[in-house]
Amino acid sequence: MKKIIKGDLVVVLSGKDKGKQGRVLSVLGDKVTVEGVNVVRRHQKPSQVRGIEGGIVEKNMPIYVSKVAFLNPETRKVERIGIKVVEKNGKLTRVRVLKSTGVEV
């Protein structure tokens, strides 16, 4: 189980976008794509088959997961995430919890 998953609100800890906040759009191994962070401009060739218009487009590029931290939506503070094994309906399942309070995320 990953500590940062799609849809989490995160804050960037280092790099050119330090301090920016955004939602995680995708998780690809040890990299995450965050909306509004690490935006680059790319030249796009037009394609009639795919219906793509040519020009310069802006897109979000992934950054390493170690450069982002989970932002608690209630307190709006940076929190660390831990994994805890709990029993639900007779089955052991892993859940994400906040390290500071132990509350399930």
TrEMBL record:
Coiled coil: none annotated. Keywords: Ribonucleoprotein, Ribosomal protein, RNA-binding, rRNA-binding. It holds the Pfam family ribosomal_L24. InterPro entries: KOW, Rib_uL2_dom2, Ribosomal_uL24, Ribosomal_uL24_C, Ribosomal_uL24_CS, Ribosomal_uL24_KOW, Translation_prot_SH3-like_sf. The keyword RNA-binding applies. One of its GO terms (cellular component) is ribosome. Residues 3-30 form the KOW domain. The keyword Glycosyltransferase does not apply. PROSITE patterns: RIBOSOMAL_L24. It comes from the Bacteria. Part of the 50S ribosomal subunit. One of the proteins that surrounds the polypeptide exit tunnel on the outside of the subunit. One of two assembly initiator proteins, it binds directly to the 5'-end of the 23S rRNA, where it nucleates assembly of the 50S subunit. Belongs to the universal ribosomal protein uL24 family. This is Large ribosomal subunit protein uL24. The lineage of its organism: Bacteria, Pseudomonadati, Pseudomonadota, Betaproteobacteria, Neisseriales. The gene is rplX.
